[in-house]
Amino acid sequence: MSHASDMRLWPRLALFAAAATLLFLFERALPNPLPFFRLGLANVVTLIVLLAHGFRAAAWVLLLRLLLGGFFAGTLLGPQFLLATAGSAASLVVMAVAAQFGARIWSPLGISVLGATTHAVAQLVVVAALFAAGQGVFLLLPLFVGMALLTGTCTGVVADIVLARLDLATRTAPERSP
Known about the structure:
Number of domains: 1
Helix content: over 70%
CATH topology: Arp2/3 complex 21 kDa subunit ARPC3
Largest sheet: none
Number of helices: 6
Number of strands: 0
Distance between the termini: 19 Å
CATH architecture: Orthogonal Bundle
Order of helices and strands: HHHHHH
Low-confidence stretches: 171-178
Strand content: under 5%
Shape: globular
């Protein structure tokens, strides 16, 4: 990526990070059926940025969303922030590998499901390592994976729809002269 295109990308990444933070805060305000269950609407933005702009851009958006969301939610540097960071980082790495090396195999929906499942497993690993005495927390693995399949499917469908519309918009937009 050239310096000029990199400079044009930063304002867009800031808008993506703001959108992801707003989605995170909106979802946080909604009632939960279970205390640890969230749909992961902000992950739609991360997936879109990953597929449209690559790993580095998605990592910046994710980092900004984690910091801003943690700050505004009052969880910055607390246990919930640690769990979100571990799950999100692991998820982004797995989604990036799937997008990079399995683009012919994995659709945005499949990449989203992989990311959601990785996020859930990473959070359980952190809970087992830092907070829980023993491995009993892994008894929740089937529940967490089942929820990840559901949430990953929902966020993947939304990301797929948005990506298709963005692709259509860029293909039909008139050329701008400098």
